[in-house]
Amino acid sequence: MNVREISANFAGMIELGGELSVNRLGFGAMRLTGEGIWGPPKDRQAALAVLRRAVELGVNFIDTADSYGPNVNEELIAEALHPYPAGLVIATKGGWNRPGPNQWTHDATPAHLRNAVEGSLKRLRLERIDVYQLHTPDPVVSFEDSVGTLARLNEHGKIRLVALSNVTQEHIERARKIVPIVSVQNRYSFADREWDYVVDYCERNGIAFIPWFPLGAGRVAGQILDQIARAHQATPHQVALAWLLKRSPMLLPIPGTSSVNHLEENVAGTSLRLTAREYEALSRVPQLAATR
Ligand SMILES: NC(=O)c1ccc[n+]([C@@H]2O[C@H](COP(=O)([O-])OP(=O)(O)OC[C@H]3O[C@@H](n4cnc5c(N)ncnc54)[C@H](OP(=O)(O)O)[C@@H]3O)[C@@H](O)[C@H]2O)c1
Fold it and tell me: What pLDDT is stored for residue 1 in this prediction?
C-alpha cells in the first residue's frame, strides 16, 4: 500500500449519541499494562509514547477500563494526555474485579459501579466521563439494577453517555428502556461473526458497535487474508481492519497495540479500500472454516 499520509481521518467519522463525533478508528489501550493485563507495562515510556502518537495520528477515541491493570491503564492515559486535547473521547468501563493476573470476577452491583465511576473520574482527571460502558452483565445482579445505576450517574452528570459491552440484543433492548445506549462493545472480526445480528441491530438503531479482538483469524482466514494483503501491498492486520470499516458505518474498531510501529501500521490501514469481491471473499471465511 502506498500511503503518503497516515491519519485516522481516513476512516471517516461516527457520531456517538448525537453528541460526540470521533474518527472511526479508535485505540484500545488494554495492552498497555503488564502481563495478564496486570500491573504496569514493562516499558512505561514506550506505553506513554504509543498513547501520544495515537492522538498525533488523529485517533480521538480511546478505550480503557478500570480493570486494566487494574487502574494502571487509566492512570497512564491521564499521564500521557492530560490536559486532554479538545475532541478526545475516553471510553472507560466498570463491572469487573481483578483478584490477580488473568483473573476477572464479576461485580456490577450498584455500590461497586458507583465506586468504580468515582475511581475512574479521579484517575482520568475528569469531571465527567464521556462514554461509560457496563463491562459485562453480572449473572448474579439484576441487569436493570446495573444499567439503572449508570442511568442515575448520567442524570447526576458523572457520565455523559451510557454504553454496554459483551451483551446480546435482548440486553440492549432492556437497557434502552432505561437509558439511551450509545455503543456496544463485543468480540467481532471478519472470521468471528457470532455477533453479526447485534451489528445489524446497532446499525438499524444508530448505535456504534465497537469490535474487540479484530483479528480472530484461523488457518483459512490466514490464506485469504494473505492473498488480499499481497494484492494491496498491505499487511493482514490492515486488511482485517479494512473489512470491519466496510462492514457497517456504525463500526468503530479499537485495535490494541503496545508498539508505535504497529499503531502506525493500523492507522495507515484506514486508507485501504477493499473491492466488493475481496470483501465478499473475507465475509465467506466463517462458512469455509466450518466446512473444513
Ligand atoms: N470489552 C471487552 O470485554 C474487551 C475484551 C478485550 C479487549 N477489549 C478492548 O479491545 C481492544 C482490542 O482488543 P485486543 O487488544 O484484545 O485485541 P486486538 O486489537 O485484536 O489485538 C491486539 C494484539 O495484536 C497485536 N497487534 C496489534 N496491531 C498489530 C499489527 N499491526 N501487527 C502485528 N500485531 C499487531 C498486539 O501486539 P503488539 O502489542 O505487539 O502490537 C496485540 O497482541 C483492547 O485494547 C481493549 O481496549 C475489550
Answer: 67
